[in-house]
Write a structure and sequence with these properties.
Elements (H helix, E strand, L loop, with lengths): L4 E4 L10 H16 L5 E3 L9 H8 L4 E8 L5 E8 L3 E5 L1 H4 L4 H4 L9 H12 L4 E5 L10 H6 L3 E3 L17 E3 L10 E6 L11 H5 L7 H21 L19 H6 L4 E5 H8 L2 H4 L4 E5 L3 E2 L8 H12 L2 E6 L1 E2 L2 H6 L5 E3 L12 H13 L4
């Protein structure tokens, strides 16, 4: 056998397989192709979007699982799990605000809110948590954290000192007023994103992600103007000279913005992929002579914007290990080839993404077919 070891490090296959089930299916496919003797290590991962909490609990099983009742993007209460220990707490925004939840899709995008995330953070601060870890990707909102702003008691006023409470009127906001009792947040807030996109512009939250969340062309224009306004006001509040926020601030519809503005540099924004590659040990474990299997629901140009698969590909390239990407579907092959991607295989042979019922078996068979051709 040409490989010393197989490292299996997939993301979730969105809508069909968790990262853990995907890793098991890949393991089965390798066994069917190469037998029992090859050494394998399963490392189901995430990138700061959906599945991050499950992946983290697998890596840190001693964390305690807790639940809270919080308003979802549509304002309806939902029971949401999070992880905690004596000093820290961990929250996945997609567990509350995901577009996959019908309750979050029932309202137009301009009426959806991030207030539930703000309420959870406020609760953790009240319970004296010293470090909050937020995974921000995969939400149904694009409000720039407007709901979070209101949850913390901040007010937006227009030129006539009228309250601005809706995204629909956000372009009219001229002043950001903190609550009289506001104190700078002392806890560290570490935010992890599944993309590196900015807040605004062609690859920003309204223009790139807004249509996926149901935004109309007029919604996108309004959101672009409104979030630009909100970004400027938070920069003024944070006493910084520009709106040059960290990469990834466009993730989750810009919900990192109020935390960056409120915390006076106590909040950070980083790559979720990098976090999980380090947390899992894959970054230090991988060696030349290994084969790394990774994959996701769909590999396309969006993968290149900071997704887990892209992080795994770059890590393999840096170390000199081989990498094979096997995903539910593959698109934008010209862009993947331009990025010098390794061999990238689609599970589907007819262009139809496998159903939840057959996804694991079809992924296993795709791995077997592909590896059977490797000598």
């Amino acid at each position: 056998m040409r490989y010393n070891r197989i490292l299996i490090a997939p993301d979730k296959f969105k809508g069909t397989l968790s990262a853990t089930r995907a890793a098991r299916a890949m393991h089965s496919g390798v066994r069917n192709a190469w037998g029992e003797k090859i050494q394998m290590v399963e490392l189901p991962l995430a990138d700061g979007g959906e599945g991050s909490l499950v992946a983290l609990h697998t890596l840190r099983p001693k964390l305690n699982l807790r639940a809270d009742i919080l308003p979802n993007a549509g304002g309806l209460n939902r029971s949401v799990c999070y992880l905690t220990n004596n000093t820290d707490a961990y929250f996945e925004s997609a567990r509350l605000l995901s577009l996959n939840f019908q309750g979050n899709r029932r309202l137009p995008l301009l009426d959806r809110t991030s207030c539930g995330l703000g309420r959870w953070v406020r609760g953790m601060l009240d319970s004296q948590k010293r470090e909050l870890i937020l995974f921000l990707g995969g939400t149904a909102v694009c409000d720039g954290g407007l709901g979070i702003l209101h949850e913390f008691g901040f007010q937006l006023l227009d030129s006539k000192s009228n309250l601005v409470q809706s995204l629909r009127y956000l372009p009219n906001a001229r002043r950001l007023i903190p609550p009289a009792t506001f104190k700078s947040i002392e806890a560290d807030i570490k935010m992890f994103t599944d993309v590196t996109n900015p807040l605004l512009g062609p690859t920003g939250a309204p223009k790139l992600f807004g249509p996926q969340k149901g935004a109309t062309p007029s919604d996108i224009v309004l959101l672009e103007d409104g979030l630009e306004n909100l970004s400027r006001l938070w920069a003024e509040f944070a006493v910084q000279n520009d709106t040059n926020w960290p990469a990834g601030v466009g993730a989750g519809g810009g919900i990192a913005l109020p935390f960056l503005g409120m915390t006076k540099k106590k909040a950070t924004l980083s790559s979720g992929s990098s976090f999980f590659l380090e947390e899992s040990g894959l970054a230090s474990m991988i060696r030349p002579g290994d084969l790394v299997l990774t994959g996701e629901g769909k590999t396309d140009a969006g993968t290149l914007t900071g997704k887990l698969v892209d992080g795994v590909v770059h890590l393999c390239r840096k170390v000199g290990a081989d990498c094979l990407v096997v995903s539910g579907a593959v698109a934008d092959r010209d862009k993947l080839e331009a990025a010098n991607y390794p061999k990238t295989i689609a599970v589907s042979t007819n262009g139809i993404v496998p159903s939840r019922k057959t996804a694991a078996s079809e992924l296993s068979r795709a791995i077997t077919r592909t590896l059977s051709l490797v000598k």
